[in-house]
Every structure is written in C-alpha cells, then in structure tokens.
Amino acid sequence: MVNETRLLILILILQVCCTFPSQAQAPSMVGRWEIEIAFTNGKNRSLRLDAEGAGRGSLMLVDSRSNLAEPATPSEANWGQGDKNSVRFSGGVVFPIGNVGRAPWTLVFKGKFDKANSITGEVAFLALDQAPNASNAKPVKTGTFKAIRAASK
C-alpha cells in the first residue's frame, strides 16, 4: 500500500512539473464569413467575405437584387490581423440603387474577435478613388458590422 501511494504521488508530481502551459492562439481570419452591416438609419446590408491565406480574399454582396440588376460578383479583398484580436479587411462592393442604378464603394472594416467565430466592429464607406489605408481617407458614410463564420460545407 505504501509503494502504491508513493507511485501515485510521483506520477502526480511528474504530471504537474511536465505539463506545459498551453498558450491561447488568436482566432484565425481564414474562412468564409457572413457579414451584416447596420446603418444608423436602420437599413442593413449583407455581404460574404472569403478570407484566404496571406491576407487575400474576396468580398461579395449577397443582398437580394432586382431581376433587372446584374448579378453580384466577388471583388478582391485584403485582410490582416493585429494584436489583441483586432482585424481589418477591405474590398470593393457595388450596391444596387433601385432597378438600374449602382453605387460603387470601397468598404473598410475594423473590428475585433468576440469569439473565434464572431467579429464585431465599424465599417467605413470610401469613394473608389480613396485608398483604404490612406491617412486622409474620409468616409462618405459609416456603420457597424457583425461577421459570423459560415458553417463548413
């Protein structure tokens, strides 16, 4: 009985001493994200971000569209992750206006991971001739967004 107790104590000591503390890794941006943009006037827009490796991806409007409007096509997007779970991504989107009008924008999203599968933050709408990373870029309008990682297929 004494030998069994000593063996048990030795095993417990080895487990405590040899266990390395696991470091929490930042959530990954890579994957498909469903994005809802909310404006102060109560209107919403839906988009999809397909984030690939090396900060590349595509952004596409997924709102319902008129039968007269051209179907939405994905545009090139860029993304990056910062410290403290912060993320930034941007890309061009063309919003339909009525049946035949179009409003092209560069959208710049800045947010933080709430959880590994959820991001919230602010979005700025820039004119197409403004660079998203320029310090003098002035948004035409702003809103908030929530992105949820889409379920794997």
Would you write up a description of this structure?
The protein has 153 residues and is mainly β. The chain has one domain (29-149): Lipocalin, CATH 2.40.128.120. It has one helix and eight strands; from the N terminus they run H-E-E-E-E-E-E-E-E. It has one helix at 2-18; strands spanning 31-38, 44-51, 56-61, 75-81, 86-97, 101-115, 118-126, 141-149. The protein has an eight-stranded antiparallel β-barrel with strand order 1-2-3-4-5-6-7-8. A hairpin with a 4-residue loop joins strand 2 (44-51) and strand 3 (56-61). It is elongated. Mean pLDDT is 82; it is low at 19-23.
Unreliable runs: 19-23
N-to-C CA distance? 55 Å
The level 1 CATH classification is: Mainly Beta
Q: What is the share of helical residues?
A: 10-25%
Count of spatially separate domains: 1
Largest sheet strand order? 1-2-3-4-5-6-7-8
Which word captures the global form? elongated
